[in-house]
Specification:
By secondary structure, the protein is α/β, with parallel strands linked by helices. It is 33% helix and 16% strand. The strands form two sheets. Strands 2-1-6-5-7 form a five-stranded parallel beta sheet, with helices on both faces. The chain has a two-stranded antiparallel ribbon with strand order 3-4. Helix 3 (91-98) packs across helix 5. The structure holds (phenylmethyl) 1~{H}-pyrazole-4-carboxylate. (phenylmethyl) 1~{H}-pyrazole-4-carboxylate is lined by residues 82-84, 108, 112-113, 127-129, 131-133, 135-136, 139.
């Protein structure tokens, strides 16, 4: 799989892409990540990337020409503009993107991006959530990590991906390891019982209870689909 990141700040990505799962996936040749410097397509002597908004108002808007110059050669890849106005990214979105041969992430900046980029130069617009970042770069990093770990061969034990939070629309159950008591804080007795059937039943109940309590929005979908396996 090839992931291309289009950004005004290529140096943002150097260190995080080198470590952990993403770094290992790149070393193993399972993914190729290309960081393209938008400044290379800037206009004029100052390689300008932004301009004042038509109609007035505060801040600057990223211009369409540099983005077109960067994104035209990436036609045929799935190009995604990152910004708070996009559709929310979920685990299902990452599943879909991880199955692609080529994904392009476009990092928005400033107060916005000329609307013609979203309308004509990308396949979709996506957001990490209802909050505003200084730029799409941190969102791109999060998406790269979420996508890369879904690429076959990247994560050693595929079962850990099948059972994790959001597969089946439920949060994960709580986990415990040794010691069985720490500062007087115990561990649910059932986990020490050795009764595998009752342990699995308890885990399923905990997933449902947690999801009801913390994410009733997820519970709507997950329970309706019977995705907890029961
Ligand atoms: C951005 C215009 C991009 O704030 C974000 C963001 C939030 N969730 N996902 C991305 O990106 C920065 C700000 C303004 C375009």
């Amino acid at each position: 799989m090839r992931i291309t990141i289009v950004t005004m700040f290529p140096e943002f990505f150097a260190s995080p892409l080198g470590v952990s799962i993403v770094g290992r996936a790149m070393d193993a040749g399972l993914v190729d990540i290309d960081v393209l410097d938008l400044r290379a397509h800037g206009l004029g002597r100052h390689r300008q990337l932004d301009d004042a908004p038509f109609g007035g108002g505060p801040g600057m808007v990223m211009m369409v020409e540099p983005l077109a110059a960067a994104l035209d050669p990436l036609q045929g890849t799935h190009r995604v503009l990152l910004g708070p106005a996009g559709a929310p990214v979920t685990q299902a979105t990452l599943d879909r993107w991880a199955a692609l041969d080529a994904l392009t992430l476009v990092c928005g900046r400033f107060e916005g991006v000329d609307q013609r980029v979203a309308d004509h130069l990308v396949e979709e617009e996506a957001s990490l959530g209802d909050f505003v970042l200084a730029g799409g770069e941190a969102a791109a990093l999060a998406i790269v990590e979420g996508v890369v770990r879904l690429v076959p061969g990247v994560v050693g034990n595929p079962q850990s991906i099948e059972s994790e939070s959001f597969r089946g629309g439920l949060l994960e159950e709580p986990h415990y390891t040794r010691p069985a008591e720490f500062r007087g804080w115990g561990v649910p007795e059932i986990l020490l019982s050795g009764d595998h059937g009752r342990v699995e039943e308890w885990r399923r109940e905990m997933r449902i209870e947690r999801t009801r309590e913390r994410r009733p929005d997820l519970a709507d979908d997950g329970f309706a689909q019977g995705a907890d396996g029961g």
